[in-house]
């Protein structure tokens, strides 16, 4: 049984800059704390804490001795170039007079230097200075609390004096424990380092954890305010309750999946060629419109608009800092709460994936280290760094001269990458060097051509580990992980038709991994028991990021020009599917998103078997059917399984309900936007327009069918995974089969609708032909 408490306090004068100093060791045997423990018969607490590392041993931001400065000006997580250094204790001998080493001189509290102290060294004379204390509540039990509260709670105790403020602190600790029991506070949250505001000192809502948009040093500004105003205010009990509940809610508010789109600016070449920017962005509504130029049957041009809504849409003026704030920053704190998070960039070659991804790990590392050395100080967290790539289905270590790596699964189905170098890192400079080294290896890999980077997935992982007992004597275990993936260019998945076999194979592998990634994310967000991680090397490697509490941020990168229109639409459709098919898609914005995207996908008016002909926006009713839309991902050979065997196998297709029918087929459709559906009237048909309409419908039909095929492909792959898993002991084959049946029922309904649609089209074409021949 032991507890470690520390108090933080604000330095004296300056509101802008202030200095912090830390005790050399929380439980220095010569400290007042040590003496207090001894005098109170609690020396066992003392000795059990000697495993704690000395506080000055950070090696953070270059390390070194001497007092380091915090800037107490507003600052956000990413910090950037901002001045932020961690304090450390100056050598004892060099301490200025007037500053007291913790516990050295208990009789002169007025000379007490600001810093973190052991809870047990509280001194009543420090009352105006005391801010909060940190508590390793895992170690706290009722016996301990009683001992702290001895005068009231345990008259028979051998303690000779009570811990100062025990009467204030103990009820707080009990309150926290009660919150945990009420599930308002997770055990993990409670377990590690809590800063508990001292009653009567602050009415600050939550000092113990940073939240986005707030300084890590907010606690200090609270302290500063409190001191400046000289106010001593009570903290209503329910305020604390509320703050914990609110914080918990905040953590759970970090969306499981967040899809952000980033548009890059026109580059020099594009500007020189006077290329059009075809993408308009409405940041406030997180929407964007792609203006696609098409040709009518008479070869006149018209513009078709495709609208999309995502969680955030970033225009070409948005900086990398803002991208970080929008994407990764909110998930950094929760990886200390046993969360595995993945951030990946998706998009065609040259759309800005690397440009976007490159700065993120460094910014995240900075924040992680800041949390480790500040909020989670002395909790035994360690940061590990690794960087590897997947190229042609094989793994290469980017920090070991592209050494080939093997992936293995242990008995507990934990994936480990044999031979992968993992570096323990404690400062940003080292991380920066490692990132640069990995990037250089990546871009000069194999052929040395930059093109190759577009054909590999680069995975940079930041793992937070901690040994079970918080000490370094045992090997640390992963607490949370943040993976950054710079994916292969999405258009590469379509290289399966290339003449070169190598290129085809690469394309198939990329295709497979992009599909598998999408599937895993969807399965994750739907809390499906089965995550189809075996779909590709990429998802297998990321397996541990797909189990437990996970978060995914997808950044879709798009190029602005008309030459990239097709790829841009494919990227946006991929992103849309990742987002809109998810169960968690229930925020206000998301509802808007699905509504809008649904509106866009009304190409097949399912409510009618004989749907009216469409009118396009901008008064453009007709279009020549341009079959320019390539498969979003060409079907790789191994996915080209026929549907039939599946249907036969289950034998239940006819019995399936047609629920979610419209939804399913709408999803399977393209993004073509339609105005109010006009009435179809054969009498008013005008030859060219009608032909355009019909051909446009045919195009839509083909596109719907294409999506059906893609879905079938997914199902086949899913089924293959299921069968593989079913062979393993303990798996429930029945569950798998019924889930498969459910998927197939939706599929069957979709195909049925497609058939109806086809019949309708054939009828209309016939009518059209009759009309044309009578005109002649
Ligand atoms: N938002 C942006 N602002 C300014 N320049 C950008 C932006 N996004 C991309 N660029 C520039 O565009 C070029 C291509 O970007 P980048 O290399 O990141 O593309 P990519 O998608 O990673 O390509 P690949 O898949 O081939 O690796 C680079 O020169 C990059 O500096």
What is the fold's blueprint, element by element?
Blueprint: E1 5-8, E2 17-19, H1 32-39, H2 43-48, E3 69-71, E4 117-118, E5 132-135, H3 142-148, H4 150-153, H5 166-181, H6 187-191, E6 194-197, H7 218-229, H8 237-253, E7 257-263, H9 268-272, E8 279-282, E9 287-295, E10 301-309, E11 312-314, H10 320-327, E12 340-346, H11 353-357, H12 359-373, E13 381-391, E14 394-397, E15 403-409, E16 415-418, E17 423-425, H13 428-443, E18 456-466, E19 477-486, H14 501-525, H15 537-541, E20 550-558, H16 565-580, H17 588-600, H18 644-650, H19 661-667, H20 687-726, H21 733-775
Parallel strand pairs: 7-11, 7-20, 12-19, 12-20
Antiparallel strand pairs: 1-4, 1-5, 2-3, 5-6, 8-9, 9-10, 13-14, 13-17, 13-18, 14-15, 15-16, 18-19
Helix pairs in contact: 10-12, 12-13, 14-16, 19-21, 20-21
Family: Belongs to the TRAFAC class myosin-kinesin ATPase superfamily. Kinesin family. KIN-13 subfamily.
Organism: Camellia sinensis var. sinensis (China tea)
Protein name: Kinesin-like protein
Explain the overall architecture.
The chain is globular and about 105 Å long. Mean pLDDT is 60; it is low at 1-134, 156-161, 183-248, 445-450 and 581-686. It has 21 helices and 20 strands. Among the domains are: 5-253, no CATH class; 601-776, no CATH class. The chain has 776 residues and is of the alpha+beta class. The structure holds adenosine-5'-triphosphate. The site of adenosine-5'-triphosphate has 15 residues, from helix 11. Belongs to the TRAFAC class myosin-kinesin ATPase superfamily. Kinesin family. KIN-13 subfamily. Keywords: ATP-binding, Microtubule, Motor protein, Nucleotide-binding. Residues 1-31, 71-114 are annotated as: Disordered. GO terms for molecular function: ATP binding; microtubule binding; microtubule motor activity. One of its GO terms (biological process) is microtubule-based movement.
């Amino acid at each position: 049984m032991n507890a470690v408490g520390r108090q933080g306090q604000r330095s004296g004068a300056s509101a802008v800059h202030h200095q912090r100093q830390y005790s050399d060791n929380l439980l220095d045997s010569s400290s007042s704390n040590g003496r207090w423990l001894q005098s109170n018969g609690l020396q066992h607490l003392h000795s059990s804490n000697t495993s704690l590392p000395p506080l000055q041993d950070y090696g953070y931001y270059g390390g070194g001795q001497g007092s380091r400065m915090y800037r107490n000006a507003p600052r956000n997580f990413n910090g950037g170039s901002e001045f932020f250094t961690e304090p450390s204790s100056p050598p004892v001998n060099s301490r200025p007079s007037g500053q007291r080493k913790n516990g050295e001189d208990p009789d002169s509290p007025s000379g007490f230097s600001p810093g973190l102290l052991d809870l047990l060294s509280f001194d009543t004379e420090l009352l105006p200075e005391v801010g909060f204390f940190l508590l390793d509540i895992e170690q706290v039990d009722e016996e301990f609390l009683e001992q702290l509260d001895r005068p009231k709670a345990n008259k028979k105790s051998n303690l000779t004096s009570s811990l100062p403020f025990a009467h204030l602190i103990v009820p707080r600790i009990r309150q926290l424990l009660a919150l945990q029991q009420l599930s308002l506070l997770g055990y993990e949250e409670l377990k590690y380092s809590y800063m508990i505001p001292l009653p009567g000192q602050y009415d600050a809502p939550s000092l113990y954890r940073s939240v986005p948009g707030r300084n890590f040093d907010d606690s200090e500004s609270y302290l500063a305010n409190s001191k400046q105003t000289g106010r001593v205010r009570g903290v209503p009990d329910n305020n604390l309750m509320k703050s914990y509940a609110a914080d918990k809610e905040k953590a759970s508010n970090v969306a499981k999946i967040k899809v952000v789109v980033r548009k890059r600016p026109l580059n020099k070449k594009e500007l020189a060629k006077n290329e059009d920017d075809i993408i308009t962005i409405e940041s406030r509504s997180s929407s964007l419109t792609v203006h696609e130029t098409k040709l009518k049957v008479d070869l006149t041009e018209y513009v078709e608009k495709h609208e999309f809504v995502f969680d955030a849409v970033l225009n070409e003026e948005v900086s990398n800092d803002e991208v970080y704030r929008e994407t990764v920053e909110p998930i950094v704190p929760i990886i200390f709460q046993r969360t595995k998070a993945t951030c990946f960039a998706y998009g065609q070659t040259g759309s800005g994936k690397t440009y976007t991804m490159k700065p993120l790990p460094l910014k995240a590392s900075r924040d992680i280290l800041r949390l480790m050395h500040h909020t989670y100080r002395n909790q035994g967290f360690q940061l590990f760094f690794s960087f590897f790539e997947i190229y042609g289905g094989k793994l290469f270590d980017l920090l070991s001269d592209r050494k080939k790596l093997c992936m293995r699964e242990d008995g507990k189905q934990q994936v480990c990458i044999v031979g992968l170098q993992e570096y323990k890192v404690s400062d940003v400079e080292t991380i920066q060097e490692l990132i640069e080294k990995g990037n250089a290896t990546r871009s000069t890999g194999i052929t040395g051509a930059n093109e190759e980077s577009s054909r590999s997935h680069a995975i940079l992982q930041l793992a937070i580990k901690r040994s079970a007992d918080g000490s370094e004597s045992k090997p640390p275990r992963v607490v949370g992980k943040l993976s950054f993936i710079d994916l292969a260019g999405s258009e590469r998945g379509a290289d399966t038709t290339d003449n070169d076999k190598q290129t085809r194979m690469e394309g198939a592998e990329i295709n497979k991994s992009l599909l598998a990634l999408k599937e895993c994310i969807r399965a994750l967000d739907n809390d499906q028991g089965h995550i189809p991680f075996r779909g590709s090397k990429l998802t297998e490697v990321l397996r541990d990021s797909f189990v437990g509490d996970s978060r995914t941020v997808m950044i879709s990168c798009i190029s602005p020009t008309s030459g990239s229109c097709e790829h841009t639409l494919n990227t946006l459709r991929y992103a849309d599917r990742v987002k809109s098919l998810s169960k968690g898609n229930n925020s206000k914005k998301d509802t808007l998103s699905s509504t809008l995207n649904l509106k866009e996908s009304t190409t097949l008016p399912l409510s009618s078997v004989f749907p009216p002909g469409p009118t396009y926006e901008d008064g453009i009713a007709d279009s020549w059917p341009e079959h320019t839309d390539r498969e979003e991902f060409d079907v790789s050979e191994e996915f080209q399984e026929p549907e039939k065997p599946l249907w036969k196998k289950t034998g239940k297709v006819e019995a399936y309900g047609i629920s979610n029918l419209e939804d399913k087929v709408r999803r399977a459709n393209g993004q073509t936007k339609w105005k109010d559906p006009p009435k179809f009237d054969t009498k008013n048909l005008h030859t060219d327009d009608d032909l355009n309409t019909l051909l446009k419908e045919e195009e839509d039909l083909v596109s719907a069918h294409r999506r059906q095929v893609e879905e079938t492909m997914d199902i086949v792959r899913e089924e293959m995974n299921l069968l593989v898993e079913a062979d393993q002991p303990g798996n429930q084959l029945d569950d798998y089969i019924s889930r498969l049946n459910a998927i197939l029922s939706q599929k069957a309904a979709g195909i049925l609708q497609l058939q109806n649609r086809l019949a309708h089209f054939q009828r209309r074409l016939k009518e059209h032909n009759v009309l044309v021949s009578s005109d002649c």
